[in-house]
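Reply to dn_fold:

You asked what the input looked like. This is it:
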Amino acid sequence: MSRRPFHRIGEAERRQDLIRATLECISESGLKGATVRQVAARAGVTPGLIRHYFSSKEQMLQDAYREVMTGMTTAVVAAADAQQQTARARLHDFIVANLTPPVADPAKLSLWAAFISHVRVDPTFAEIHRESYLAFRSALEELVGDVLVEVGQAADKRRCQELAIAINGVIDGLWLEGTLVGDLFSETPLPGIAIRSVEALLGGISLSETTPSS
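and this is what came back:
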């Protein structure tokens, strides 16, 4: 395991560096292997400094999980945040971002798999998971609603929510397949499958349209 050289940085940057070191240790050794001593060695600091930023190992792991989940949601929302695009193009880009690097990546799967078992037994992990899921679904509901309005269809809250839940299910399933056995989909790229599936859920609305229908 490589040790980073210590250098003086700000409080926020140091905390972020420690979270990155924690994630690297988890990716290599799992949650149990990500000890305070290992994380300190990876970050190039003393265990005492880690305790300055995190009250316990559990808090360190919880913050690392929040970083993973928030980071993936931020990445896909940013991919759809282009003011000059149509709503359909934004939803298209949101879906593609979920199924391409850096979100669809074996390293992300390793981290997710390491954390997910904790979600069932640790209330704090469960709350982090719930918050991140709702944030992702809220962003997706808004994108779906914008698409429906753009094509002149009703965009009531219940319809947008149900469509977002269904689309999220498609994305989650393909994300798992793509990160576990991505080599099997070289001839049938998963983003294209996802787009066609979502278009079907939307009742045939094409996400390849670049201008609103009249």
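DSSP finds nine helices and no strands in the chain.
Hope that clears it up.
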